[in-house]
Amino acid sequence: MNESKGERTDRETADQFDQRILDWYDDYAHGRIERRDFLNRVATVVAGGVAAETVLARLAPNYAWAQQVPANDPRIKTQRFGYDSPQGGGKIEGLIAWPADNKEKHPAVLVVHENRGLNPYIEDVARRLAVSGFLAFAPDALSPLGGYPGTDDEGRQMQAKRDPDQMREDFLAAAKVLRDHPASTGKVGVVGFCYGGGIANELAVRASDVIAAAVPFYGRQAAVSDAAKIKVPLLLHYAEMDQRVNEGWPAYEKALQEAKVNYTAHFYPKANHGFHNDTTPRYDKASAELAWTRTLEFFHKHLDG
Fold it and tell me: Domain coordinates of the chain in residue numbers?
């Protein structure tokens, strides 16, 4: 199935799947198991290999579901935007979006994608932020390899080929470019999802002079020893069923408290990793909408004015 064509019109939900299958899919989506391993595991729950392939197709992204704000929405303006990342991948490109309200400057938000490049879901997140009054920039860490290839499976394989340290430098450079952009007020927030959630945590550690607020969605926590370096407010969103990411939370929370970091953490009941991504059955509408409302309120509080 071509993920970008949106052949599936039916929307399934996580409760229609065995939780073990959702957990295995998370392992597959993050490269901890191979496709064959995922299918073999699923075949122990459903009836055989053909059914296992069907399950995988049902869980694959359908990007037609993710378009909440069309690219030609009259409320916003968008363009492809490139910048230099000399310590990272060189020339990085992405999507920048801003309100079509004729204001000269807007508070800015850096949008950091998952472990598969700048797919249509993340582009839509940038447009959603623009509708809400922000200058939003979503870089594509796959730029040095030709950019997001059109499917998440290929995107994951490509992102795994990038040097992790260089990718971190790419997003740090993006934050600085966004701060200094002529349409930016200089107040910059960062929101990231999955891999991007980890980057949001890291930028809070490394770039408190650039970032004014950070919102990680189900992202790996920063090192406990680095918590004292965080000088910006955090809004952390976690999924109750996401054991892999959540296992690092108790130690991280203790470190944040000891360092007197301004943070708020929310755990969304029965939600799975990726619950904000509205392209797969792991999407949890109620949790996603609540988390997004909280995110916008948080950014307006810390970036406006």
Answer: 14-60, 65-303
Q: What is the architecture, at CATH level 2, of domain 65-303?
A: 3-Layer(aba) Sandwich (3.40)
Q: Say how far apart CA 79 and CA 82 lie, in whole Å.
A: 10
With a CB cutoff of 8 Å and minimum separation 6, the contacts of 277 are: 61, 66, 114, 121, 193, 283
- Could you report the per-residue pLDDT of 220-258, keeping only the tens digit for each? 999 999 999 999 999 999 999 999 999 999 999 999 999
Residue 282: Cβ within 10 Å count: 25
DSSP state of 228: G
Tokens at residue 175, please? 């934050």
Mark out the alpha helices in the chain (DSSP H runs): 19-29, 35-43, 48-59, 120-131, 152-159, 164-180, 195-206, 243-246, 249-258, 285-303
Query: How many Å apart are CA 235 and CA 63, to the nearest integer?
Result: 27
Its pTM stands at 0.94
Q: Rg of the Cα trace of the chain?
A: 19
According to DSSP H, which parts of 210-248 are helical?
Answer: 243-246
- Tell me the C-alpha distance between 61 and 1, whole Å: 9
pLDDT in tens, 14-28: 999 999 999 999 999
